[in-house]
Amino acid sequence: MLSSARPAGADQLSDAKAKAAQLNAEIQADGARISALGQAYDQAQSQIASLDQQISATKGKIAADQAEVNKDQSTLRKAAINAYVDGGSTASSNPLFSNNQHTQAVAEEYNQVAEGDINSAVANLHTAQTQLNQQEASLQSQENQAQAQAQAAQQAQQQAQQEQNAQNSALSQVQGQIATLVAQQQAAQAAAEAAAAQQKIAAAQAQAAAQSGAAAATGSGGNSAAADPPPPSAPGGEGAVQAAETQIGVPYVWGGETPGVGFDCSGLTAWAWGQVGVGLPHFSGAQMADSTPVPISDLEPGDLLFYGPGGADHVAMYVGGGQMIEAPYTGASVWITGLRLGDGFAGAGRP
């Protein structure tokens, strides 16, 4: 049985990404539910506003009814007091109520009218009080309903918010794990690239030494031509590297050439070499054309590394130890990574 060659870190990263995808799906589902709960809350708030208007109107009616009750109570009180205090004296002092049969009938009719007014006032009072009690009960019911709706909506919103916070917290943790794993993988890849580059550099150096030894053994008149000597070291290479390293973490910006703000690949190398007094054009292909070719066996810090036909695709700067510094691509920042000498590598140059 063949064992899997997949590294454990890749499994962890795959699992973390799967977990992040699951959390994203759950967050989207929760987001839809939260949106629906938000609409339910809005509906409850609208109902509360409507009920508040009804309650306000009911209170106004209650106030009007109370005024009517007060009026009826005043009418009843005055009628009762008059009936009690006068005790018929008003009737006897009135010429209409003299001691004869005719005036006696008129007096009885007056008393009936007075008693009818009192009875009417009492009836009106009872009716108004009944209506007032009914309106108070309706008001209390509406208030209870409004409070229940508001409380339910608030509880739903709080619960949804708590769930959303929990999901976002879990996602942040997983994203942090992914970032750590990716950084670890990138570091491992950079280290592997640096080690591979070191091996290639060492092999190139060994080959150059062998060719030089063979040329010396055969003499200048031999068939084997001596290897071309490397270009002289460029003054300021270490300083250019140090300048470039001050911009680690600065974001990639298309066409960028401003320290602390943003660089593209050729903008970074042109600026870094400019700090030591060497002017370079802001285009990788032109930088390759203006540089002296350098074999990888003779790379020194500050040398430029070109990619793509004529170096037109990308440029980085060698920092030593099989590593290079570059402004890589949109979404990334200036970083130090392993020297890439594989597909796309077009050669090295010394300004």
Task: Note the main attributes of this structure.
351 residues, alpha+beta, Helix Hairpins, endopeptidase fold (from Nostoc punctiforme), six-stranded antiparallel beta sheet, two-stranded antiparallel sheet, 6 helices, 65% helix, rod-shaped, disordered N terminus
Descriptive notes:
The chain folds into two domains: 9-184, Helix Hairpins (Orthogonal Bundle), CATH 1.10.287; 236-351, endopeptidase fold (from Nostoc punctiforme) (Alpha-Beta Complex). It has a six-stranded antiparallel β-sheet with strand order 3-8-4-5-6-7. The protein is rod-shaped and about 155 Å long. It is of the alpha+beta class. Strand 5 (314-320) and strand 6 (323-326) form a beta hairpin. It is built from six helices and eight strands, in the order H-H-H-H-E-E-H-H-E-E-E-E-E-E. Mean pLDDT is 76; it is low at 1-6 and 221-226. The two termini are 54 Å apart. The chain has helices at residues 8-86, 89-93, 101-218, 237-245, 265-274, 284-289, and strands at 257-258, 262-263, 292-294, 304-307, 314-320, 323-326, 335-338, 345-350. Helix 1 runs antiparallel to helix 3 (101-218) and helix 4 crosses helix 5.
